[in-house]
Amino acid sequence: MARPSDLDALTATLPRLEPGHVWLVGAGPGDPGYLTLHAVSALSQADVIVHDALVDERIAALARPGARLEPAGKRGHQPSIAQDTISTRLVALAREGRRVVRLKGGDPFMFGRAGEEMLALAEAGIPFRVISGVTAGLAAAASALIAPTLRGINHAVIFATGHGAGDAPPVDWAALAATGQPLVIYMGIHQLAAVAADLVAGGLGPDTPAAVIASATLPEERVLVSTLERIADAVRKAGLGAPAMVIIGAVVAMRARLGGGDGP
Ligand SMILES: C[S@@+](CC[C@H](N)C(=O)[O-])C[C@H]1O[C@@H](n2cnc3c(N)ncnc32)[C@H](O)[C@@H]1O
């Protein structure tokens, strides 16, 4: 195990967050243990941290004394700050000469709107960097003992959003079903009955194993395993809520061989 002084020495070699720069930082799935050293370093340098609703307060507590925390929560169907407002705010803070961290749950690129923020920063001539984080889809799979790739079972994994977002084209669930590859679905718990029905209509067997992992990596984590046909009902009966990850496909079945139950 590294001594604290070794970690300090390593952290000192990481890039510096300069005044007027913005870093888009992934905070991981919730458990602070999944933070990267880059993320910890960014938090310790920032003057202002503009953070998502899903970022754990223990992570926000790693901000340096005197740093300002600005919530920019975007949470499912609840009213949230418009993306343009957040991007404009990042540009304004950078122009004031602040060291800015935009802290996002999971990985900034996985349904995290980092693309829009990068474009806004680039157009404004603001230097920026993206710090990857552990995405909730993979962390949830690890917590539930579900390997999203299994030799002999699949050769691809599909990360999808179940939340028909804004002006994006609707998800073609039948086309995804036709690939026969496992699906890891973000923001899918509220539409699970409709998504499951579309997948079955698209040709996926009703007995296809399906899992929901709620609050993955957090003390309140719950895992529920069922079939595509029954999962929405089971989630409703068990009272599972957001944030939750849905994993569908034959890869889910291995959990039982590893001693995982059907939960929750
Ligand atoms: C807007 S997306 C952002 C995803 C994030 N960028 C990532 O890489 O994990 C938010 C969704 O991620 C999923 N999520 C985030 N944290 C989670 C957790 N701890 N457990 C289960 N799902 C989670 C939920 O589906 C939630 O609705």
Can you characterise this structure?
It is a single chain. This protein has 2 domains: 4-131, Cobalt-precorrin-4 Transmethylase, domain 1 (3-Layer(aba) Sandwich), CATH 3.40.1010.10; 136-257, Tetrapyrrole methylase, C-terminal domain (Methyltransferase, Cobalt-precorrin-4 Transmethylase, Domain 2, 2-Layer Sandwich), CATH 3.30.950.10. The two termini are 34 Å apart. The mean pLDDT is 92. The radius of gyration is 20 Å and the shape is globular. The strands form 2 sheets. It has a 5-stranded parallel β-sheet, with helices on both faces. A 5-stranded mixed β-sheet has the order 6-7-10-8-9, sandwiched between helices. Helix content is 31%, strand content 18%. The chain has helices at 4-12, 37-45, 57-60, 83-95, 114-123, 136-143, 173-179, 192-201, 231-238, 254-257; strands at residues 22-26, 48-51, 68-71, 100-104, 128-131, 158-161, 183-186, 209-214, 222-227, 244-248. It has 264 residues and is α/β, with parallel strands linked by helices. The protein binds S-adenosylmethionine. S-adenosylmethionine is lined by residues 29-30, 54, 104-107, 110-112, 135-136, 140, 186-187, 213, 215-218, 242-245.
